[in-house]
Amino acid sequence: MDAVTQPPVIRLNPEDGVVIARQVLPPGTPVGAGIAAAARIPAGHKIAVRRHAKGEPVRRYGQIIGFATEEILPGQWVHSHNLGMGDFSRDYAFGVDARPTEPVPVPATFQGILRADGRVATRNYIGIITSVNCSAHVAELIALAFRRNPLTGEDPLAPWPNVDGVVALTHKTGCGMTQGEPLTLLRRTLGGFARHANFSHVIAIGLGCEVNQIGGLLDEQRLSGRLRNMDIQEMGGTRKTVEAGIAFVREVLEEANKVTRQTVPASELCVALQCGGSDGYSGITANPALGAASDLVVRHGGTVILSESPETYGAEHLLTRRAVSAEVGQKLVDVMKWWEDYTAREGAEMDANPSPGNKLGGLTTILEKSLGAMAKAGSTNLVDVVRYAEPVTAKGFVFMDTPGYDPVGATGQVAGGANLLCFTTGRGSVFGCKPTPSIKLATNTPMYQRMEDDMDVNCGPILTGEESVQQVGERIFQLMLATASGQRTKSEQFDCGAAEFAPWVLGATM
Predict the structure, then answer these.
(1) CB contact set of 203 (below 8 Å; sequence gap of 6+)
(2) What's the burial of 190, exposed, middle or buried (CB within 10 Å: 0-12/13-18/19+)?
(3) d(CA 431, CA 469)
(4) 462 close to 448: Cβ distance less than 8 angstroms
(5) What are 60's strand-pairing partners?
(6) Distances from the Cα of 454 to the Cαs of 30, 161, 216, 449, 479, in angstroms?
(7) Is residue 201 within 8 Å of 124, Cβ to Cβ?
(8) Can you tell me which residues the record assigns to a coiled coil (predicted)?
(9) Measured over all CA atoms, what is the biggest interatomic distance in the chain, rounded to whole angstroms?
(10) Is the pTM of this model over 0.90?
(11) At what angle do helices 469-484 and 286-299 cross, to 10 degrees?
């Protein structure tokens, strides 16, 4: 479809007091009935279309995104200089908007890897997890022995074409930490990765004297079977541990390679939803399009996981209204209360979340970002709220409590079982998430064209009228199925995804 002539601004809801610049607008550009831009307006930013008195709420999406910190006249640029946070009541109204989800008549399928325990994988890696930062280098040396040489093209795994790689997942904690919740959370994260369907076999490597003892990790998480554990001190040092790790990988490669892909229902999809490097178009194009795709996943019987609690703050009342029960809705309210207490204790504010890039792209407050970010989850019922890295067992739309920092949030979702990840971005985030493939969705065409090597889907045609949100959502859903069937994403082509492993660190470093 050809681009159609579009007005210079986008109005998202009749109740809104602002409109969004479709491109850079010079002074004098008409932005409403008898209203012209009073100054140059950056692309994706907000322009007032009515007067706001100081202290008056400002609406976008029909919802409050902040309060005028000074009088705002029609045609003026609305951003950090005249828009700020403020208190307002939210009606949680548990479940009033919950509706039965209509399943599709003929569920879609993809070519997945069926594990012996019945779970379905989308990739087939051998994993190396580390109990502590002190064992990180040893893990990386083992993985390096099986890495393709980008200069010569030599691939040690060529004889085993069904093995996607050997990946070392290292981190910066595991010792010098307080026990209790910080240790429990780390072990839950490592356990989730050790059990992940996308790993055929796993090595757990420790140093030997750390707080997060390998034995304690194995017992607490009930890990056995495919996992081989090694302590560097007991093995006799770096060289001997690396040699033993390489020998283990070579020992299991034949078994790992025996997998074959087979037709499985789309209900086996468990999709992590992420956004990062957002801009003023994120809540207009990529996030709603991913929401349309999320609705399709749920209608086909699958699961989608929304996270980033600070980036849902201020919009959580729209999700509690979709909760299947008051208990589920209250779980989300409790999550937000914890974050209010946590940030106050740390001397921070919930509105500190929008990054400089987000603000440069047109997002002013956390309320505004939250309203756009939650669009990724579509419109189906909220069926469960889970803790960070907790196993996700429910089918449908699930919320996981995580920080807003993308690598930490995605790490929790994958630990929870996500076998696919979709990541929307307006500024251009480059991101992978081994062992789970990551699909990158660009909010606007200029960025997509500039970073086409990193972006999988261009959602920009929604802005120009070439495609609808639903049409792009269908494209995303079809790409989900293809990716789950083995088609490599742009981030996989760059071998991204190991360095992004980032467990949430709580508590004091001692």
Answers:
(1) 126, 127, 128, 129, 139, 142, 227, 228, 229, 230, 245, 248, 249
(2) buried
(3) 24
(4) no
(5) 63
(6) 36, 24, 40, 10, 15
(7) no
(8) none
(9) 79
(10) yes
(11) 60
Same domain, yes or no: 412 and 463:
yes
What is the span of the domain harbouring residue 485?
A: 273-493
- Average pLDDT value for residue range 379-404: 98
In this predicted structure, what is the pLDDT of residue 352? Answer: 55
Q: Is 509 within a domain?
A: no
* 180 and 313 in a common domain: no
Do 269 and 236 touch, CB atoms closer than 8 A? Answer: no
Q: Which residue has the higher pLDDT, 497 or 363?
A: 497
What is the phi-psi region of residue 497: left when phi exceeds 0, alpha when psi lies from -120 to 50, beta otherwise?
left
Whether the Cβ atoms of residue 390 and residue 416 lie closer than 8 Å to each other? yes
373 occurs within a structural domain: yes
Residues 202 and 283 in one domain: no
**499 within domain boundaries:** no
Q: What is the number of domains present in the chain?
A: 3
Q: What are phi and psi of 414, to 5 degrees?
A: -65, -40
**Measured between alpha carbons, how far is 332 from 315 in angstroms, rounded to an integer?**
11
| Mean pLDDT to the nearest integer, 430-459 | 97
Residue 57 and residue 140 share a domain: no
CA dihedral over 484, 488, 490, 491, signed as positive or negative: positive
Compute the residue count for the chain: 510
Q: At what angle do helices 238-257 and 136-144 cross, to 10 degrees?
A: 50
What dihedral do alpha carbons 373, 377, 382, 387 form, nearest 10°? -60
Contact between 289 and 456 (Cβ < 8 Å): no
What number of other Cβ atoms are within 10 A of residue 224's Cβ?
A: 9
**In a domain? residue 420:** yes
Q: What digits encode the pLDDT tens for the residues 2-34?
A: 555 789 999 999 999 999 999 999 999 999 999
